[in-house]
Amino acid sequence: MAEPEPRDLAALLLTLTVVTGAVDAVSFLGLGRVFVANMTGNVVFLGFAAAGETTLSVLASLTAVLAFLAGALAGGRLARRDDDRDALRQATAAQAALIAVAVVLSVTLGGGTRLGAELLIVALGLAMGLQNAAVRRIGAPDLTTTVLTMTLTGFAADSKAAGGPGSHPLRKAAAVAAMLVGALAGGLLQLHVAMWAALGLALVLVLGVLAALYRAAVSGG
After folding, report:
1. Residue ranges per structural domain of the chain
2. Cα–Cα distance, 144 to 173 (Å, whole number)
3. pTM for the model
4. What is the rounded distance in angstroms from the CA atom of residue 18 to the CA atom of residue 206?
5. Cβ contacts of residue 217 below 8 Å, gap of 6+?
6. How far is 21 from 153, CA to CA, in rounded Å?
7. Is the CA virtual torsion 187, 189, 192, 195 positive or negative?
8. What would the pLDDT profile of 125-155 be if each residue is shown by its tens digit?
């Protein structure tokens, strides 16, 4: 089977990193200061909210964490398959469906009501949990599509200036740039256009990744 070459796979993972930035921009700016991909932030928010910070919601952060875990559980079951690219294809297909549901919810219920916000958090949390579990199976260094802390650590600690091998500095920089671009684009659309537009961008990107994965599978068949 002719799967994407490593460079092509890296491009797809970077695209999913852009999706992460866009989706988290929507959730943080439009759903009440909560993340649906960055679970570290939600755990910290839970602590802040428990300490008495009234602008943060324990319910929203807890919902996001539980939805993400459920998505990661489903993605983990897919990742048990022998073909990790097939797991990524199926997880990406499910992710696209969930983001499409989020687009519909943003148009109908919106994020301004508690019900609408919670349903959006659930759909997006499930989608990002699926993405992370499938990408984790691939194990591409510095391309987790969500967590940049270790990527930035590797960029500095593994650099030649630190006495390291200086491996893949461009890929590390590209991962950071991809997240920034996604957050910028998602933020601009969320703040100046509409939530559905920002989620629509994420959906188009995920569908593009899915199309590339299926094209590679079909061309190899």
Report:
1. 6-38+66-220
2. 13
3. 0.89
4. 10
5. 1, 3, 85, 86, 89
6. 19
7. negative
8. 999 999 998 888 777 666 777 777 666 566 5
